[in-house]
Amino acid sequence: MKQAAIVVLISGNGSNLQALIDAARNDKLNVKIQAVISNTKEAYGLERARTAGIPALVKPKLKTQEREAYDAELADLVMSYHPNLVILAGWMRILSMAFISHFPGRILNLHPALPGTFPGVEAIERAYDAYQHGEIRCTGVMVHLVPDEGIDLGPVLAQRTVEIKPKDTLQDLQKRVHLCEHQLLIETIAHQILEMEESHA
Q1: In the sheet where 138-145 sits, what is the strand order?
Q2: Which residue in 82, 102, 111, 191 is the catalytic one?
Q3: I need a labelling partner for 27 at 20 to 30 A (CA). Which of 2, 67, 107, 182 fits?
Q4: pLDDT bracket for residue 200 (50, 70, 90)
């Protein structure tokens, strides 16, 4: 069975990227990570990619550059690797249609919250605060498609609840959410690849 080609976009530590690298190496995920692209040169995920022998590229947005112009250049860069899927794993920029339109139904975003809750940044921290104030009893993780510029609003492919325990510190919750993220992302990508293969059969 042919490996699916993926490009991973990151902005930071890259723990989810590492989970993908490990899953591909251990044959739990039939993918070839063609490239890892970060909008920040400080992202530790770039080092993870280099260590695994994966092309690691930095594509920062220039201050003088229009958002759409940057996204069009980013799209050209990603397209040069011919990915079946584009994975947003801790990518901290909102993509415009200048990027999204090139990959219809092929952009997957991982978000550490349940659908309709805590969109945007610091979702785990906000969920932890909400739990402390008695507003929620649990949080979760989702993987969704990115059809437009809505923040964490695309069609949900998979979701999983994460328990918040009364004695949890924020670090306890972060650890549990990240573990769930790793598992759900791998499972969802595997499922999407299977669906793509069946649709082309």
Answers
A1: 56-58, 31-38, 4-10, 85-88, 107-111, 138-145, 156-163
A2: 111
A3: 107
A4: confident
